[in-house]
Write a structure and sequence with these properties.
The complex is a heterodimer of chains A (about 250) and B (about 250). Chain A has about 250 residues and is mainly α. Chain A has two domains: about 1-30; about 35-250, MetI-like (MetI-like fold, Orthogonal Bundle), CATH 1.10.3720.10. Chain A is about 85% helix and about 0% strand. Chain A contains nine helices and no strands. Chain A has helices spanning about 5-25, 40-85, 85-100, 105-115, 115-140, 145-155, 160-200, 205-215, 220-250. In chain A, helix 7 packs antiparallel against helix 9 (about 220-250). The longest helix of chain A has about 45 residues, at about 40-85. Chain B has two domains: about 1-65 and about 150-245, P-loop containing nucleotide triphosphate hydrolases (Rossmann fold), CATH 3.40.50; about 80-145, no CATH class. Chain B has helices at about 40-50, 85-95, 100-115, 130-145, 160-180, 190-195, 225-245; strands at about 1-10, 15-25, 30-35, 55-60, 70-75, 150-155, 180-185, 200-205, 210-215. In chain B, the strands form two sheets. Chain B has a six-stranded mixed β-sheet with strand order 5-6-7-3-8-9, with helices on both faces. Chain B has a three-stranded antiparallel β-sheet with strand order 2-1-4, covered by helices on one side. In chain B, helix 2 (about 85-95) runs parallel beside helix 4 (about 130-145). The longest helix of chain B has 18 residues, at about 160-180. The N and C termini of chain B lie far apart (about 40 Å). In chain B, about 40% of the residues are buried. The chains are: A mainly alpha (about 250), B alpha/beta (about 250). The interface of A and B includes residues 145, 148, 156, 169 and 253 of A.
């Protein structure tokens, strides 16, 4: 298959879909407060970017802080689990439980307990984001080749040397896969936490702007905010994918 | 150098991998542990390396001195190189683990790679090397710490025949030149006969030493085509016929 065609396909699909959307809205005379067309959404962004852009920046700040926290906690837990069977047995079920509990249900509690709203948002988002990093890194560490572990042992390596020179480097690809999944989850977590905080009156982030716009029936602005979130998600995913490729290509080529 | 006295290994679950192994290994011997799959040859190697402990019996070392880290070199069936390190960095590993500085180790690494015919590939990563070259790096890594004993677990089994012959030639030459004690696990009669100065034939389930054959092929002849080699292969084959259970 032609590579250019493959690159072009998603853009062409988007243009066609947006055109069809715009045409449908015009032909069927749908009112803008039910479903605005792409042109109205673009206009809403043009009128509202002074509000929407700072909100986006605020959401992204929470996202990256959460990703950083999730990475630190996830990797630390994975290393501890790899080092101690007992620790793994003790912690694993609780990590899974935290993962399956919907963050919307936990967020009000965290906002209640953590007085500083920014930190509360970061904590909420990292609860969602840390699990893929933890499970992927743990799987990578557990898959450290046995022969190489034996070789390290025969040469009198300390546990720290095994971790630093063998286990962590061999788990790097798994970690990067986890990081890519966690990147987009951190964004989801940030938005969910902002929704909960926003309905409690804390004004920050795109989620708050979405709530606000819905109260005021500014539906085009809601869509503009949604579009910004979608684009951010794609950019985060692509950027982490690029990081993964660059790191591994440089290392293993 | 090392003596095995009535060594047995039974795994949890009751599998008897080794049963009552007694053998003495003298310094400078090149021993082939020959036997079919599942006869416990690899287990015996791991016991000698100290990677596992015997369930019964005793392994005693000369002067009661268990080898220190790095005094045993181990070559696995796969090259088991770290893909993110270059050939030179892989060879450096045993020294690095012992805290030898890279700059200090560099001349030794270079000369070891050169001995293995890899002088031009110091900076290459494993992905760029052929199977035979990877195995050479692996052997260089095992030799860099100047071990007293070199243990090899079917290292050439996965290589094509041409590469295998070359590596066998080189290993045999290396042994003659350095006089290192080598224990080499193989399931190839030809390989055992070609390489070793002594062949311990093992029988399976449970693993026992069934025969102890000393190999004397005159070094001045072309080993692979000499009468002594052909005769040795025939002897080993007859021995195996006698001891192997017919299926």
């Amino acid at each position: 298959m032609n590579k250019w065609l493959e690159r072009l396909a998603p853009i062409a699909f988007g243009v066609i879909a947006l055109s069809a959307w715009q045409a449908a809205v015009i032909i069927m005379k749908v009112p803008f407060y039910v479903l605005p067309g792409p042109i109205e959404i673009a206009q809403a962004y043009r009128d509202g970017y002074a509000v929407l852009n700072p909100a986006l920046l605020s959401t992204l700040t929470v996202t990256f802080a959460a990703l950083l926290l999730a990475t630190t906690v996830g990797v630390a837990l994975a290393v501890a689990m790899a080092a101690s069977q007992l620790f793994r047995a003790a912690v694993q079920p609780w990590a899974v439980m935290l993962q399956v509990t919907p963050i919307v249900a936990i967020a009000p509690l965290i906002l209640l307990w953590v007085p500083q709203p920014f930190i509360a948002l970061v904590v909420c988002a990292s609860i969602i984001a840390f699990f893929p990093i933890l499970s992927n890194t743990a799987a990578g560490l557990a898959a450290t080749p046995q022969d190489l572990q034996d070789l390290f042992r025969l040469n009198g390596a300390t546990r720290w040397q095994v971790l630093r020179l063998l286990s962590l480097p061999s788990a790097l690809p798994n970690f990067l896969t986890g990081l890519r999944i966690s990147g987009t989850l951190a964004l989801v977590g940030a938005v969910v936490a902002e929704f909960v905080a926003g309905s409690g009156g804390f004004a920050s982030g795109l989620a708050y702007r979405i709530i606000e716009a819905s109260y005021r029936l500014e539906i085009p602005r809601m869509f503009a905010a949604l579009f910004l979130l979608g684009v951010s998600g794609i950019v985060i995913y692509a950027a982490l994918g690029l990081l993964e490729r660059l790191l591994l290509r440089k290392r293993d080529a | 150098m090392v003596s095995l006295r009535a060594v047995s290994k039974t795994y949890a679950g009751g599998t008897v991998a080794l049963d009552n192994i007694t053998a003495d290994i003298a310094p400078g011997e090149f021993i082939a542990l020959l036997g079919p799959s599942g006869c416990g040859k690899s287990t015996l190697l791991r016991l000698l390396a100290g990677l596992e402990t015997p369930s019964a019996g005793e392994i005693s070392w000369e002067n009661n001195q268990r080898p220190a880290p790095g005094e045993i070199g181990f070559v696995f069936q796969d090259a088991t190189l770290m893909p993110w390190l270059t050939a030179a960095e892989n060879v450096y590993l045993p020294l690095r683990l012992r805290g030898v500085h890279k700059a200090e180790a560099q001349p030794r690494i270079q000369s070891m790679l050169a001995q293995m015919g890899l002088a031009d590939f110091a900076g290459a990563r494993p992905k760029a090397l052929s199977g035979g070259m990877k195995m050479r790096v692996s052997i260089a890594r095992a030799l860099i710490s100047e071990p007293l004993l070199l243990l090899m677990d079917e290292p050439f089994a996965a290589l094509d025949e041409f590469t295998r012959h070359r590596l066998q030639d080189d290993l045999h030459t290396l042994w003659r030149r350095t006089g290192k004690t080598i224990i080499f696990v193989t399931h190839s009669i030809y390989e055992a006969a070609y390489l070793a100065s002594r062949i311990l034939v093992m029988s399976p389930r449970p693993g026992r030493i069934a025969a102890d054959i000393s190999a004397k092929i005159p070094e001045d002849e072309d080993r692979r085509t000499s009468r002594a080699y052909t005769q040795l292969v025939a002897d080993i084959t007859h021995t195996l016929h006698k001891i192997m259970p017919h299926e």
